[in-house]
Fold:
Amino acid sequence: MVQEQIMARGITSPRLIEVLMKIPRHLFVQEAMAAQAYSDGPLPIGEKQTISQPFMVALMTDLLELTPRDHVLEIGTGSGYQTAILASLVRRVWTIERIRPLAMQARKVLDSLHLLNVNIKVGDGTLGWEEEAPFDAILVTAGAPAVPETLARQLAPGGRLVIPVGSESTQTLLRIRKEADGSLTREAGIDCRFVPLIGQQGWHAPQ
Structure:
């Protein structure tokens, strides 16, 4: 998976590659899907949510430019696979999941891997985690109609926010950087498709 799907597409950060080799992706999918865990695509994890394609996990992580001392906020814990990658690279991860059963299952798997530098909260990820801000990096693993102002505000100077932005059916991956004076710069990346970011500053929940 790492050589053919990730390194072959240009992601070669030694720390990231080492972590991708180490984290057992099959633990983060449903048992019936375990044989497909390392395939080149997203997989359903229940609750109408997905675990992202391995390359997308690697790309988004790479774009965050993480250092071992960073404090990171993740929006959309899902199965916890992306969380595990982040937790293996930084000092501490705060992650928010709106669907309680997914958050509970992710906590169980993360604990089994002794990734104890992760705080999980069930709630509206579009509002961020104000009491723990500012963050060195923020990763959003769902597609937003626009960059939530609350998340941009919770970035530290020099911080990076990686988020898919666009319609509910297709998005563009953006990296937002907060400059020392508080201004934001944007870089547009590849087109992608994520489940909708539901919340006050995202899409409305389906009725």
Notes: The chain has a mean pLDDT of 96. The CA atoms of residues 98 and 161 lie 20 Å apart. The helical segments are 2-6, 14-22, 54-63, 81-87, 100-112, 149-153.
